[in-house]
Amino acid sequence: MDASQLQAQIPAIFAPWIAELGLQVLSAAGGQVELELPVKPSFIHSGGVMCGQTVMAAADTAMVLAMMSQLGEFRPMTTVQLQTSFLRPISTASCRIKAQVLRSGKSLAFGSIDIVDGEGRLAAQATTTYALL
């Protein structure tokens, strides 16, 4: 699936509030995707930076899209593990999420996600495990 096909799937397969994040699929190829996430005022917590919950939701969504780009379609799956390390706060107008499938078997898939701020600095890293249903 290419970037435009994945973009069209966001409102179709994810919860409505995920579509409201405003993620834009910039590229997709064989188990890898790159997304842009605008940093909306509703994502900012009292410390003046984007909240971690938004980062984790974007990372989880990116990995599902990366899996779809590898499989060529949506296949039911569920997150088993999502571990996120926050390296720096995100205070720029947007950030980029780069997700890649590391390994995909018959019942489990593993992935890695980098989140960089608008200046290209690594802000968070996540690893994921999914059960394919």
Please provide a written account of the structure:
- This protein is 26% helix and 41% strand.
- By secondary structure, it is of the alpha+beta class.
- A six-stranded antiparallel beta sheet has the order 1-2-4-5-6-3.
* Tally of DSSP helical segments: 3
Q: State the CATH superfamily name.
A: Hotdog Thioesterase
Instruction: State the distance separating the first and last CA atoms.
Output: 20 Å
Identify the strand order in the major beta sheet.
1-2-4-5-6-3
| Helix/strand structural class | alpha+beta
Poorly predicted sequence stretches spanning 5 or more consecutive residues: none
Beta content comes to: 35-45%
CATH architecture: Roll
Number of E strands: 6
Largest sheet: 6 strands, antiparallel
Mean pLDDT comes to 97
Q: Helix-strand pattern, N to C? A: HHEEHEEEE
Shape: globular
Binned, the helix content reads: 25-40%
CATH class: Alpha Beta
Radius of gyration of CA atoms, rounded to a whole number: 14 Å
Oligomer: single chain
Count of distinct structural domains: 1
Q: What is the CATH topology descriptor?
A: Thiol Ester Dehydrase, Chain A
InterPro entries: ACOT13, HotDog_dom_sf, PAAI_dom, Thioestr_dom
EC number: 3.1.2.-
Family: Belongs to the thioesterase PaaI family.
Domain Thioesterase: 48-123
